Amino acid sequence: MQVIPSICTFCGVGCGIGLRVEHGRVVGVEPQPGHPVSQGQLCAKGWSTSFAIDPANRLREPLIKEHGQFRPATWDEALERIASEFRAAQETAGADGVGVISCARATNEDNYAAQKFARAVLGTNNVDHCARICHSPSVAGLARTLGSGAMTNSIADIDLAELILVIGADVTENHAMIGARMLRAQARGAKLVVIDPRKTRLARLADIHLQLRLGSNVALLNGLLQIIFANGWENAAFLAERCEDITPLRRHLAGITPEQTSAATGIPVADLLRVAELFSHSPAAFTAWGMGITQFQSGTNNVIAVSNLALACGQVGRPGTGINPLRGQNNVQGACDMGCLPNVYPGYQQADAPAVQAKFAQAWGAPMPARPGLTSLGMTRAALDGNLRALMIIGEDPVVTDPDQRQVARSLQALDFLVVFELTLTETAKMADVVLPAASFVEKDGTFTNCERRVQRIRKAVGAPGTARCDWQILGDLAARMGYAGMDWDSAEAVFDEMAAVAPIFSAMSYAELDARHGLHWPCDAEHPQGSPLLHAQSFPLGRARLIPVSQVEPAECPDAEYPWLFTTHRFHFHYNCGSMTRKSPLLERETPAGLVLMNPLDAAEHGYADLQAVRVSSRRGAVEARLQLTDDLPRGMLAMPYHFREAPCNRLTNDAMDPVSKMPELKACAVAIEPLPAGAAPHNRIDASEVAHASL
Ligand SMILES: Nc1nc2c(c(=O)[nH]1)N[C@H]1C(S)=C(S)[C@@H](COP(=O)(O)OP(=O)(O)OC[C@H]3O[C@@H](n4cnc5c(=O)[nH]c(N)nc54)[C@H](O)[C@@H]3O)O[C@H]1N2
Ligand SMILES: Nc1nc2c(c(=O)[nH]1)N[C@H]1C(S)=C(S)[C@@H](COP(=O)(O)OP(=O)(O)OC[C@H]3O[C@@H](n4cnc5c(=O)[nH]c(N)nc54)[C@H](O)[C@@H]3O)O[C@H]1N2
Ligand code: SF4
Ligand SMILES: [Mo]
Asked: Ligand 1 centroid to 217 CA: how many Å?
């Protein structure tokens, strides 16, 4: 048996795996010994990788829909159809009448190709990906406070931290190897503080759990900061040396009392005082956050409030500290870095800057679009309005993972043409006119960039099933068919080298350098040839950092007489996003086999519900049936669902009210009603999205 070193395909931790290959098949996975991130361990999802990519579960040939049914097609026919449909859409609706949604699960090389295809071949900046509904508020918020939106420190800094502050992240479940590292830090004496409305596993083990009222993040963070200012616990030297004038922020917070903060958040004054004192006095505090603060209409403000707190206490720019958004997908950092965003080119070069446009027009030999493009939800809305006619989705399943499923289904149906590149026939792929089989990460060379900006190599271990191909190859062929010759690379390495030549933050990276060690952190250039595990030690990209006054904003939809329960969505350890990969594993499927609605047992007793009872949950946008699971993880008055289960799709309920800055939808809060199903009835939901688009749910 051969063991080929690679990187896990699931979350942004970026664990090192070995692919066990026998007779041309990946038969298992083992941890890479000595890998600096995973240190010889993997979580349950990593161990179960071989099911997720098994050829038996995969698309093998292109499919074209005729009279509502898919039939197999040749690559020639499928690509010709895509080329002509995209050209036709642009003739009717202009260059911006088409769009590309790229894939944070695919490689940097695939993502570089996707945005180059959008800009150089289609002539539009309509390119985006799932970061929009993930960490876009972190990117927007930190751009305003520091000038750069990535993790400032590295995962290894957890080993050096004296205090770890986790806000709105369920780390043991979702970034399992980072969660384990935090618990090891606590065992050696670091203090662990968790801010979360649920009693997560990490919250139960923490030294202090601030179980705040859901959505009261800015009230809490402002309140902590006011206690720090009132007691003179801020880091005056750091503020004077590294930050802009903080007088406006001091004034903004001056009137707040700990009692008011306690009333607004539900947290006892004594706990507020203790956390403010611990955080401000710690020699090194590592701050990390996730979807519990970004997925709100106040997402950008929430991130700014975290940044304010860390800056005021000087907890950034040194080992063991940092302002650290825990990026979710294995390569979501990379998809952003590659420029799969409507406003930036590779390496965060601004799409509306004439000098940048001129640079890429010259490098790629094609005119560049003048204006920034639409976001992913902007594209689906434009489809409904008839302004976007053709869409390419490379490895995303918005029918299951975007808010307000019926609206998403209607948008996709309103398109003239949809093409999806996928490993399997997802709910979104079922809606497509053409589906292309994509090679998975074990069938290609390339790179993934984990949450700490570490670019790591993945390697082709086996051939792809049927005629499946790498996303960058498919895009290159399609480009040639559409009359553009600048994407005819002969290897993933050639794509990477072209990328490194146009994106200064990668200029000193090459496959040889990445192979020689366990990857490199960007920026990696002439000044930092060994990469940059720690950012902002001397100065910030903005020069001085900014502490910006922000105020508490409640969720767009709060419980009322008609929809009396607060509803939130989160993740389970054993399943990953739309579930299209982890649910192929019988081992993972055995652990959490189906959609559940979580409820506090005291609420159940009061309203007469029992564990595993079948219920119907409804919001202003739709309804879903599932079974109840009683758990005191949840506070009273709140219901929660995971979003991995296509047959119990919680995104039928969620609200697409958006953060005005980042366009993040409010996936963490809306209002719902619940009712029992008749005795003996089992939960049942219509799954077919084309039916869902028309049904009254
Ligand atoms: N097992 C597994 N791992 C995954 C994924 C997966 O699907 N499954 N997905 C990956 C992806 S794409 C991402 S982005 C990451 C996401 O990882 P996380 O950020 O951990 O994601 P969630 O579980 O959605 O939400 C995190 C926490 O936010 C809390 N929360 C809700 N509202 C509030 C609030 O108002 N304030 C605070 N402070 N907390 C709140 C929830 O209770 C929850 O515990 O995980 C990645 N890893
Ligand atoms: N209610 C609710 N909804 C949410 C969230 C939430 O917390 N609550 N979280 C949001 C977040 S943070 C995120 S990131 C999104 C994730 O939403 P999605 O990106 O839609 O979720 P994934 O399951 O990761 O889908 C990726 C698809 O890519 C395919 N794939 C994997 N590798 C490749 C490849 O190399 N090439 C191609 N072409 N395809 C590939 C997989 O088969 C899979 O179907 O969900 C969001 N939706
Ligand atoms: S922690 Fe994340 S990267 Fe590591 S094995 Fe688990 S899913 Fe894979
Ligand atoms: Mo995410």
From this structure: 15
Structural domain 82-132+330-509, CATH architecture: 3-Layer(aba) Sandwich (3.40)
Q: How far is the CA of 402 from the centre of ligand 2 (A)?
A: 9
The pLDDT value recorded for residue 697 is 58
The CATH-assigned architecture of domain 136-325 is 3-Layer(aba) Sandwich (3.40)
Strands 614-619 and 670-676: antiparallel
The alpha carbon of residue 139 and the mean position of all alpha carbons in its chain are separated, in whole angstroms, by 12
Superfamily of domain 2-52, CATH level 4: ADC-like domains (2.20.25.90)
pLDDT at 598: 98
Q: 328 CB less than 6 Å from ligand 3?
A: no
Q: Cα angle at 639 between 633 and 642, to 5 degrees?
A: 80
Q: Which residues in the chain land under pLDDT 50?
A: none
Amino acid sitting at position 61: E
Tell whether ligand 3 has an atom less than 6 A from the beta carbon of residue 155: no
Our answer on whether the CB atom of 619 is closer than 6 Å to any ligand 2 atom is no
Query: Ligand 2 center to residue 397 CA distance, Å?
Result: 6
- Position 696 scores a pLDDT of 67
334 touches ligand 2 (CB under 6 Å): no
Tell me if 168 CB under 6 Å of ligand 1: yes
Residues in Cβ contact with 527 at an 8 Å cutoff, skipping those fewer than 6 apart: none
